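User: You have something folded?
Assistant:
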Amino acid sequence: MSDKGDSSGSRADSADAGRFAPNQTLTLAAMLFAVSMTFIDQTIVAIAAPDIIDELGLSASGMQWVVNAYLLTLAAFFALGGRLSDLFGHRRIMVIGTLVFVIASALCGAVPTGGAAQAWLIAFRAVQGLGAALMFPAALAVVVAVFPVERRGRALALFFGLSGALTAVGPLLGGWLTDWTWRAIFWVNVPVAIIALVLTAKARIPRVTRREPLDVPGAVLVAAGMGLSVFGLQQASSWGWGSAATWLCIVGGLLVLVAFAAWELRTEHPLIKLAVFRDRAFTVDVVVLFFAMIAFVPVFFFASVYAQVSLSASPNQAALYLLYFFIGFAIASQWGGRILDRRGARPALKLGCAVGAIGFALWAHRMTTLSMHDQWPYAALAGAGIGFLLAPASTDAVNRAIDASYGEVTGVTQTVRNYAASVGLAVFGTVLTHITTDHVAATLRADGLSGGAAKSTAHSIAEAVTGHGDSRPPTGDGAVATATRHAMGSIRLDFAEANRAVFYGMAGSLAIAFICSYFHPGTRVTSESGPPQPQPPQSPPQAQPPGRTGGAAPV
């Protein structure tokens, strides 16, 4: 997405921009209400997962698709949403995105029971992600266009600073709403969207557009590449890692992404300006964000389901379990910003990756104790690691945008972050299903079932395991029924051991990020040393990264 106007192509509706000045307070409030839905929906569904599975009869992999469909479409269409906002007007695309999002939310809450439930819910979660991809970059552009340079930093600090808090609100709100009905986690978006739209109408936001071609081939390639690669990773739990179809999707998707990069470097009006990756510090920031996000968003899904299955926690208790993570995150985020201000991004990245890797590893080690009391210090430590690195990496990346605008670089980092979260959910979901299946199959074989029967029964149990702990075991005195009841009796520990492998994987991802952080040059960007951002005449003023340092870090 671009904040820069084309001096020959930008134009403002004279009726809006001339006679009526926009109300900045109402504008910021409207945009905050709109984007709040996108952040909350990244985490709120995780808490309700067992209840959704129990009522609709979804499989575990199907539920993972319900979570991942949103993140994947958000990543795949984020850059396109920003470009459409530039071409057709920020306010217009923000309103369209909000309407798409809230209609899809209402339809998710209205999903019928029966055989079509899984496809219905996945489809409309994907539409939700599309709405968010239209809404978020357009809302950012509205704030940039309405606020003058001298006030823009404070406005953007609030705009981005709210995201961490709202991500934390998701599990807590989800736990409370799920006690009433899980459908309310989707319906709650309706009044929020209405408030956002009413405030938008009253704010008198000017209409600003640009005249330039839309990079349709780039949009198709990035969406296809991301979708195909994540589809292969997630379907590996069903197809197996030895399946040709699995690797065809993964490798094919990655090759399409390579083709997308080649196309973007050649085209005159690219969807994403990949030239920003010529800066080594920017590249390291984005790579660290990629590996950190593989753990950051998926942790909400896996930890909440683990709490409800292995710890027999209620949705509200599972939300409090995740709160330990957020306490560490919130405290460390403040320290991370100070480190960035005083010493630059590299120390914050190294510290965050190291603390996060250790925290996730210790958390994983304690999971088989089946005690929430034994785990909270390590959950907080894992959250602190993410808190130390997230804002400094994001801010440092934005500060190094020389030839691209603030909005364009934010588009790059948000696309990478959401794609990484989708990859993490797909990979760790496959790991969880495979290890749970293997543990259950071993129990069934020990009870006398043949290899084939044990594997088939174990896969069915693993797919259903994220339902409530009182799921109905099979009746009868046959060997299969008896062995299955025995296996389901030990499922809490089996599922905990599978989750332990997942959280060790998250620790490994942060360990890779730690190695990558050493390649950061360590140079600092300040208001004096930062590259000047040119202001083309007759166009909206160029957005500057708030403060050029960590105090107003986008997260």
